[in-house]
Amino acid sequence: xxxxxxxxxxxxxxxxxxxxxxxxxxxxxxxxxxxxxxxxxxxxxxxxxxxxxxxxxxxxxxxxxxxxxxxxxxxxxxxxxxxxxxxxxxxxxxxxxxxxxxxxxxxxxxxxxxxxxxxxxxxxxxxxxxxxxxxxxxxxxxxxxxxxxxxxxxxxxxxxxxxxxxxxxxxxxxxxxxxxxxxxxxxxxxxxxxxxxxxxxxxxxxxxxxxxxxxxxxxxxxxxxxxxxxxxxxxxxxxxxxxxxxxxxxxxxxxxxxxxxxxxxxxxxxxxxxxxxxxxxxxxxxxxxxxxxxxxxxxxxxxxxxxxxxxxxxxxxxxxxxxxxxxxxxxxxxxxxxxxxxxxxxxxxxxx
Length: 352
Hints:
By secondary structure, the protein is mostly beta strands. The chain is built from one helix and 31 strands.
């Protein structure tokens, strides 16, 4: 409103903010651009985390990244630390079938991405991958002795917890995610953005299409009894939770969420299906898997705004007891408020 345009630009690979005088009536630039003496945190798709009010106040997010840590969140939103002595966090952490360990993505001492495990009752991180460029999407084998994950160079791999060399799965499909059926007999492979494949674990088995879609298909999750498959589909325009019989997916289709649904996880007894909506809020669907699949009710649990959330990958897990959720909390994002910033901008732009 004071005759300046503030915009983001790249200078020798660094993202910075500039201001330039502009005459809105004549649609003309009236002076030289100048780099501003503050730098907000930059986001994706050309965004910068700042705003200027009509009264001239400036608010921006500091470039200092907020600390993240792992927390347990109960159904009512009560929070406590997973390990008060650990100053760190894992991305896409998953709890072992017996509830004693978690596995996730982290960084080693040399800065290299690794898949590591950590006991939930304390103790150090224990890497199970070495010399890989970018391992991600870890998932436990049902017996708790192995972890599947993706490597950018080699596709889907299986690593034993004893540190042996990982073995490849999925053939030439190069899947970006794999989950096991509860009996360990089947693998569901996500291939590209739209397809799910299924493969029996018999050595002579080959992957075959399970679900092919004109929209994206993400976050597959198999019920504890092995009879139903939940996943996220955006065929209707937004992500929502769909459940089908498994492995005979053509025998039915039930939509669980209707206002956005992402990251489905079954409770260990199969009576609930947890998910998050487009705002990151946690929901539970009370379901029946006796006979055909049925949704009895859907209830909100707690706001997830303080915890990492993504519509493309699951950023939480559910403990086998069904009473607590493993989540990554973002702490310490610093907001800077500058009063009368327009006055400062005028003076700055007029400096020789």
